[in-house]
Amino acid sequence: MKKAQIKTGFIAVVSALWVSVALFSQTATAQENAENQPWHELEPTVILISIDGARHDYLDRYYAPNLNRLANDGLRAEHLQPVFPSKTFPNHYSLVTGLHPEKHGIVENSIYDPEFDAVFRMSLKHEVSNPRWWGGEPIWVTAEQQGMVAGTFFFPGSEAPINDTQATYWFPYDGEVSNRKRVDTVIEWLEKPQAERPQMITLYFSDVDSAGHGYGPGSRQVGEALRSIDNEIGHLMAQLEQRGWLNSVDIMITADHGMARVDQTKHMIIDQAYSSERAERALYSRELAHIFAKEGEIENIVAELEANLPHAQVFTKETMPARFHFTNNKRIADVLVLADPGWIFAREFALENMQSDADFYRPRGSHGYDNEHPDMQGIFIAHGPSFKQKSEVGPVKMVDLYNVVARILDLEPAENDGNPAVVPMLLREQNNEQ
């Protein structure tokens, strides 16, 4: 090798070493600055986290060290009972309004409004963002209207200007946004100057629900999904801890509902179970059918359904159980058909494709059943300065948590269906004396 080549090679190696040293030094300096950063003190702050479809027993069945740390150091409820129906949109919106669906109007994931003669579906963005569907007052609107900044990272209702108000920070739902991006954005919000910093924050994760639907609540896939979300919760905790905020922020971890195991061979063909020409309109899911009857046809529809569906219950507004709180709204259908847990409805046109699927016999998961059924119950964990520590409490209902958040943030709550006795059950004495 020539001397010039040796010299050039030597210079290149030395240069590379100097670059590596410089990068290491910069990284170390950045880490040291972060650790020594005089982070600002936080005003009372709530981060409300929804883990969609996280059944009440998942913390005991699957490995979730960060969630269990929060539960063990803070407070854990026996379970969080959803409102009826035990579906995603009704329960998320009941969580943040403290109202039952018959009052706030989000009575299903898919809704027909006879006055508008229009249908609401999660996939219809122009309806999801239309305030005409959303009654009540979600907690971020309560906060904003009382002079507090709020931030929502994906939560039903947050895309619409409800009572002409939205959270200061919000995003249209996009399932492609990573969970890490969601968590890091929350941290960025907290680092803002006080006048711009949200004190009411919502955060949403869908992975556990998706795994439950696809493989059933007892599956390896659900365990993996929960562990993935647990890692994100751990990242949030680490970021808060690094800034000295972990014990200054109130974290509430909820689920909108649980999940029941479903064997797809246990299906009922819902549109063969009654004469569909008797109906003006019908909306179907795997667990529920909402049938708006033509004039004079309610009794005929009920009689046909009861004769043909041995694994379902049929209700009218007159026979609806009072505990469902599911009667007094024009969007609630004349006839409601509720499948028994573990059974599902199917449509005639879709049956062949469903049965020919190579994975037809694989266990699946469903929700939407009776909200008192054990498999429909979700998790509830709370950790922070406002909550009781190292405590276990009995069941909590979805509508009860709006008042809890309002008390922590010293907000005047809107009218709601929550039980005031839940506030002292969850919060430490200094919060109850406010």
TrEMBL record:
Residues 1-30 form the signal peptide. Keywords: Signal. GO terms for molecular function: hydrolase activity. The keyword Repeat does not apply. It comes from the Bacteria. Pfam families: Phosphodiest (PF01663). InterPro entries: Alkaline_phosphatase_core_sf, Phosphodiest/P_Trfase. This is Alkaline phosphatase family protein. It comes from Aliidiomarina shirensis.
